[in-house]
Write a structure and sequence with these properties.
The protein has one domain (about 1-180): Rossmann fold (3-Layer(aba) Sandwich). A seven-stranded mixed β-sheet has the order 2-3-4-1-5-7-6, sandwiched between helices. Helix 5 packs antiparallel against helix 6. By secondary structure, the chain is of the alpha/beta class. The protein has helices at about 20-30, 65-75, 110-120, 140, 150-170, 175-180; strands at about 1-5, 40, 45-50, 55-60, 85-90, 100, 125-130.
Length: about 180
């Protein structure tokens, strides 16, 4: 059983913002497998399978900077998963680029830092989607902005590739996914 988390912020105000790319990926992934979400106090959850892999999909509703508390609750409910995959936005990757990592630091991402602090390890798979950076806009405002019309096709393709990357990780392993998608 795998736990797959998409990071984002809850509410209409944040829908389709750069910071919510993790939610977008998880929703497309769930849709491709006909998995529906139900809402708990701190997260949305969907359960199903992808091929032979049993999966639990999680969207924390605790806001980005406190995402780890929701992830910890789910991990307590489903202990010893085969793996944890967290889908996140990344300011340091060009818009639409994808990068898979097996483990590592938060890289300054507050949602990832919260997950690391709450679950007590940095050894989990991350799928990072590039949202670019605009040096004229403070990062905390930029991540809450929506993608431009020119960026939307890049993001649509990146979300689709991230869904394929998750499926590859589940069926063939993270190393093959890294070779194929990085």
């Amino acid at each position: 059983m795998w736990i797959i988390v998409g990071l984002g912020n809850p509410g209409v105000k944040y829908a389709r913002t750069r910071h919510n790319i993790g939610f977008a990926v998880l929703e497309e992934f769930a849709g491709s497998l006909n998995i529906e979400f139900s809402e708990k106090a701190d997260y949305r959850i969907g359960k199903g399978s992808a091929g032979t892999a049993k999966i639990v999909l999680v969207e924390p509703l605790t806001f980005m900077n406190r995402s780890g508390s929701a992830v910890k609750k789910v991990m307590c409910k489903y202990p010893d998963p085969d793996g944890l995959i967290v889908v996140q936005d990344d300011l340091d990757l060009d818009t639409g680029k994808l990068k898979i990592r097996k483990k590592g630091s938060s890289g300054g991402h507050n949602g990832i830092e919260s997950v690391i602090q709450n679950i007590g390890t940095n050894e989990f798979i991350r799928i990072k989607l590039g949202i670019g950076r605009n040096p004229e806009i403070p990062a905390e405002k930029y991540v809450l902005s929506k993608f431009t019309k020119d960026e939307q096709p890049l993001i649509k393709e990146a979300v689709s590739r991230a869904v394929d990357a998750i499926k590859c990780i589940l069926s063939e392993g993270v190393d093959k996914a890294m070779n194929r998608f990085n």
